[in-house]
Amino acid sequence: MDAALRAQLxxxxxxxxxxxxxxxxxxxxxxxxLEPCSLLGGETLFEQxxxxxxxxxxxxxxxxxxxxxxxxxxRLLGTVMPGETVGEMSVLTAHPRTHTVRxxxxxxxxxxxxxxxxxxxSGHPEAALATARHALTRLLKRDMAEPVGNPxxxxxxxxxxxxxxxxxxxxxAPALRAYGRVLVIDAALGQGRxxxxxxxxxxxxxxxxxxxxxxDSAWRAACLRQCDQPLLLVAAGAEAAAWPDSxxxxxxxxxxxxxxxxxxxxxxxxxxxxxxxxxxxxxxxPRWHHLRDDADYTRLARVLAQRECGLxxxxxxxxxxxxxxxxxxxxxxxxxxxxxxxxxxxxxxAAGVACEWDDHELPQRMHAAxxxxxxxxxxxxxxxxxxxxxxxxxxxxxxxGARSIEDLALPFFCVSSNLTSGxxxxxxxxDLWLWLRASAAIPGILPPLLRHGAVHVDGAVMNxxxxxxxxxxxxxxxxxxxxxxxxxxxxxxxxxxxxxLPRLTWHWARGRRWPSLFAILVxxxxxxxxxxxxxxxxxxAHLLSPPHADxxxxxxxxxxxxxxxxxxxxxxxxxxxx
Length: 578
Prior knowledge:
By secondary structure, the chain is α/β, with parallel strands linked by helices.
């Protein structure tokens, strides 16, 4: 072994999560046992159930850990990134492989035979302890839905020759540099290079952007094999067609690597229907991003660097106007909002944020719909609900028009409770007004939304603070605003039945109040999800709970007061280091 390779291997061992805890002499003693090997993207390292004869240290590339027997088909459980090991627990416990591991992209590895590792563990118990800690950390991250591994190589793949992928990469690179060194590699720089050259470039840089050429199939295939995540570049206004690379058609085809559809468009609101037309061309749709200006490139950089900032807004009736004040404060503080979602009134305010309504338009539209518009005034015979729901539907359509969720400038979801399946559902596609109507359908007050055989009601019934839905979609920090509160209904007298109407009227005139039917129904709709909300609060990096005890759930007239409370509270929260 020459001196240069020896020094390189020692450095790799020092940086690894498992071998970095060993003394220098132990790492040097391992060198003769390490066997270099490589895998092309898509190749299998080992299968579930095979004997465990070695562990592997990943030098470059990324590996996927799969459960081939998952109920919903093969499922990616996590990723292994450079400097991490895989297969060590099976070697340590002498059990067959518990999962299948496959190369997500071209990989360079070091193989350590099981006998050598067992000898190491017997002489250095800290190695066995590090192995156990490493395995437990992976399990905890998986259970908490935290990202495992940090992607650092991306392939910019143009749909056709009319698109300048190099220009897009050069525009994205400065935004990524906020998080580390960036290198752009096109065919002129990278074609024909050995795998060691790519390994060296990726070790020197935090991010590498591989720029593919629509007409060079060999280089394009190399970019796809080399990347952690493909960036699929299309012109938003072009006619949608099937994607040319079959390895990008579905999650399985892409080896479960996240795929990003980049829709290049003109400044202003994204064109209606464009995203949906492209997404329909995939067997399983990728995540999509509207790219119109520098702000969109900056947001995409945060997504790729796993620094994306999610905002979750809870339900809570008229108190939800506090969300408007929170949003205004976050903007004033320069805190980015990259992904937004919510339940009930929180979903409606979140939709306004996703539409990019500014600090003037957002409260103006909310006031027109929910204060001046009196959404609950179309009372009806209460066979299904107290109101017909037609007025609420009309106001939502007036506020949001014919937008689909795919057309929103920011990624967005809203939650409804599907009483047919018994599950909360996060809606990310389809007519915006329609799913907002479902998300806000308080049982007994608004009639449910009946759609494709399912009955949808207010999302607060099952998930009033959907940080779990956000975590599935957003790898960065989450800010959650919970205005549901400890809002137990109370009574200041005992009673078991209502008096007859004349007597009830007499009591009412003298100030004796029973909880209103509206208040009972609103409170009942939220009680069930409170236990889940308590768990969901732990997923938030910042949990905001603006004071709202003196604002009634249906006190729409407290619109401005709720906004002011939300703004002041948020400014104070972050001013105090929250």
